[in-house]
Amino acid sequence: MVNATLKAWVNSGIPSHPTGNINPIRLTNIVAMLVIFVSLLQLPSIVYFWGNTSWYQLHLVLCTVILLTFVPIFNVLKAYKSAKTLLILTYVFNILMSCLLWEINLNLQYFFLIAVFIFPFVFYQHERTIMRVVVISFYALFIGFELWFYFSAPSLLISLHQQMFRLSCASLFALSCVLCSFHLWKNVNRSWQKLSEEKSRSERLLLNIFPSSIAQRLKCSPDLIADYFEQASILFADIQDFTPLCKNLSPQQLVGLLNEVFCIFDNITQKHGLEKIKTNGDGYMVAGGLPTASSSHAIQCCHCALDMQDAFKDICKKHNLHTGLRIGIGCGEVIAGIIGKSKFSYDLWGEAVNLASRMESHGLCHKIQVTESTYEITKDCFQFDKRGSIEAKGLGWINTYWLLSRKNNLETHVLAK
Question: What is the rounded CA–CA span in Å between residue 40 and residue 67?
Fold first, then answer.
C-alpha cells in the first residue's frame, strides 16, 4: 500500500510514453516528497524542545507539507510550471522563515546550495534561461543570509579578520557550487541526449524489423506474441528466372538491383496500408489485415499487386532485363507471431499463407494469380479472367483467377493503417 502510494506520487502527471531519460516532472514530485519528509522529521524535536518559537515552527512545517501536496496534483492537471513554481517558493519560504525564527546562524542557509545542485534538473533544456535565474537566486539568498548573520551576530568571540575570512570562504564555496551545478547540468543533459538519440536509432531499427504495434508489445512485455486473424490476405511476389539472371550480374549489380526493386515495393506496400513481412532471396511477402484487422485487406493487396507489376516493368525497361514478376494472393485464416531467440522474426502461418504461396509458385510470368475467395471479395473492384482449376501441392484442386486490372479505370487509393 505504501509502495503503491509512493509510486503514484512520483509518477503523477508523467505521460504514458515520456520523452527523455531525466524527467523533470518526476524529479519535481520526488523533491516535493523529500522536502515533506525532511520537514516532518523536525516534529519530534519541535515537540521535545517546546519553546517560544516551536509554535511558529510547527505551523511552518504543516504549511510546507500542505503546500507541497499540491505539487503532484498540479502535475496531474498538466500545470507543470505551476508545480515547479509552488515547489521552489515553498522551499525558499521554509528555509527563509526558519532562519528568521531562530535568529542565529544554524547554517540552514546551506540548504540553498543543495537546491543549486538539484533544481536545475527540474527544468527542460529549453528552459535553461529560467533555470539560470533560479540557481542564481538561490546563490543570492545564500550570500544574503551569510551577510545578515555576519552583521547581526555578536563579534565578541570572533575577530573581524576571522569573520571576513569566513564570509569570503562561504561566498567562494557558494560560487563554486553554482559553477559546478551549471557544468553538471550541461554534461548530464548532453549525455542523456546522446543516449536518447541512440535509443531513437534502435527504436527505428526495431520498427524496420517489426510492425509498430508488435514492436511496442515487445518493449512492454516479455510474453509470447501469437495472434489469430480469422481473415487476412497474403501476397507473394517472385522474380521469374532470377537464378540464371544472377550469373550475368556482378555481386554489386545484383544487390543494387534487388535493393532498387524492394525499395520501390516497400513504398507501394506502405502506400496501400499493408505490412511487409519479409524478403527471401528474390521473393517478397506482404500481408493485409494484420497486425491490425482490416475489412479491405484483399482489395489493398490487389491494388498493391497491380502497382508492383507496373513498377517492375519499368525497372526491366530501365535495366534491359528480360524477366517479369509472378504474384500470388490468397485469403484465409492466419496465425502471426514471433519465433526464435537469436535473429528472431515476425512470421505468419496458416491457410492464407499456403494459398498465396501456391498462387505464386503455380503462376505465370507477368501474371497475378488469386484464389476464388479473393476473387469473390474483390470482383466488384477489379477485372478478372478465370483460369480454371489447378492442382496445388498439398492443397489439391482449387479454382483460380488472373487479376487483370481495376474496373472503370479505378485509381489506386491510399489506405491508411
Answer: 13
Give 128-187 pLDDT, tens digit per residue.
Answer: 889 889 999 999 999 988 888 877 766 555 666 777 777 888 888 888 888 888 888 888
Q: What's the burial of 64, exposed, middle or buried (CB within 10 Å: 0-12/13-18/19+)?
A: buried
Of 1-5, 26-30, 410-414, which gets the smallest average pLDDT? 410-414
Please check the confidence at residue 342 and state whether its pLDDT lies above 80: no
**The C-alpha cell that represents 170 in the structure block:** 562561504
Cα separation, 216 vs 203, in Å, equals 10
Peptide bond into 72 cis (omega under 30): no
The set of residues, in sequence order, having a beta carbon less than 8 Å from that of 22 and lying 6+ positions away, is 121, 188, 189, 192
Residue 58 has pLDDT above 90, yes or no: no
Global pTM?
0.60
DSSP secondary-structure letter at 76? H
φ, ψ dihedrals at 282, nearest 5°? -100, 10
pLDDT (mean) for 89-103: 87
CB 389 within 8 A of CB 372: no
Burial of 287 (0-12, 13-18, 19+ CB in 10 A): buried
Alpha-carbon gap, residue 161 to 139, rounded angstroms:
24
Query: Residue 186 corresponds to which cell in the numbers above?
Result: 550541461
Q: State the fold for domain 226-409.
A: Alpha-Beta Plaits (3.30.70)
Ranges of each domain in the chain: 2-207, 226-409
Identify whether the C-beta of residue 316 lies closer than 8 Å to the C-beta of residue 366: no
pLDDT at 414: 38
